[in-house]
Fold:
Amino acid sequence: MPPVVNFTIHDEPHLLMTMVKEQDLNELTKSELIQLIHQLKTENQRINSQRRLQIDEHESNLAALIENTDDYIVSVDTSYRILVQNTAYGRLINDIYGQPLQEGDHILQYMDERLVEYWKPYYEKVFAGITQRTIETRLKGDEKRFLEVSFHPIMGKDQEIKGASIYIKDITERKVAEDQIRSSQQLLSSINRNIKEGIYRSTPEEGLIYVNKAFVEMFGYSSVEEVLSLQSHVLYDDPQRRLELISLIDESSFMTNQEVLYVRKDGTRFYGMTSSIMHKEEDGKVYFDGAIRDVTEHIEKEHQLRQQNEELIKVNSELDRFVYSTSHDLRAPLMSIAGLINISRKSQSDAQRGYYFDLMEKSIQKLDNFIKDIINFSRNARSEIEVERIEVDHLVRNILEELKYSSEYHHLKFYVEVTGSGVIYSDQKRLTVIFSNLLSNAARYSEPSREESFVKIHVKTDDEFTTIQIQDNGQGIRPEHMQKIFQMFYRGNNNSKGSGLGLYIVRETMEKLQGRITVNSEYSEGATFTLELPNLPEKVEA
Structure:
């Protein structure tokens, strides 16, 4: 008799069937076969029960998930009848229409004709297997809400469409945030396009990592990429200034209104008023965010105003001295003449009166020279510079020709040497004043007792500059007077015959001609005045 096969209900069905297959059913007794069938039925019931419990649990979890979500969820069959809806969707419909929908109700039943025509195409497409999505707005009180509505087809086992599930999500916060971001981006973009300040961001390691269009144009480059490829220090006239600015930011995390001289691509300079703030990320990375405003015009005007103020202070000071000195120097010769007239009237001797007349003539000549100095001073300060082509040798010899008849010059020998082109572009009237004053001084302070008193004039010209040296072997200048001889009304001693304006006028005239004058002297040996004059453009404002 074949062995009896024992099965327990804990065995899995496939194992049970495997064991049955290993036995020859014909070898089983009837009671064994009945027992086997009973065990199979019992096991099958147990498995079905477990599967039902699992399905119920899954359905319960799914229902809880649908019910507890903040989204509005509903599903319909292809006849628009509601299959399932969560509480949130029920409240939404009740808020909109004032009455709820139940399972089995037509989902469009409360909508007016216009809304039905709007929503029906979405259902038709989803019933055709096409997923749909749209964003709708509605008012909740005075508040505008945004709802994202998506339609998904429900497929059966045979891939036949059984209906549609509709998910409605309130995306108001996201939409508002997106709109704010978009608005901020548009505002930032508009600012970057239209603002005149150059905006930048940089890091200590990478240098510039962002610049706006105004920054690119301010520095004369063609693109943002070109600027970002640069080393930051090349934008500064003095790279050391950049290090100073970084130190300022390191100390207080910001800097404001720093005047910086920058360099454009073409090498030209401009002044930028710069402000910057340091920003440190959570990961420790440091950023410098800043703005540069081109203030070149303002700075230049400020410098010009400062220069004008300094000149005004100088003019006011000189005017005070001028009024005081001229009143004295004009009055003294006149008083001398008046006294000589009174004396000559009382004199009975023709010879004596002739002597007095000679003294009057000298006073008149002194007064005339002083008036000429005043006229030259005024013309130099107020008249425009008239630039013309000047042959220096011809100019000097014409001046000497006029001077040779003066008694002051008869004992002097003049030597003139011109090298180079001999041509300068400058103001002839002003040059005449300069030469006349210097030669007059050379004659006035010459030393007649010398075997030969001379004045040597050497002129060297080229395409850009003319250098003029006027050397004499006269009395020379004491060391204590060297720094003062170009001051207004300065006289080295009480016996000085000049007005004290001559060398002052020479220096002022040289400045107007954009040149400079220096002097070297050894007392009792003579003096040498050196003038350096540039060729001027066609017209220069005085």
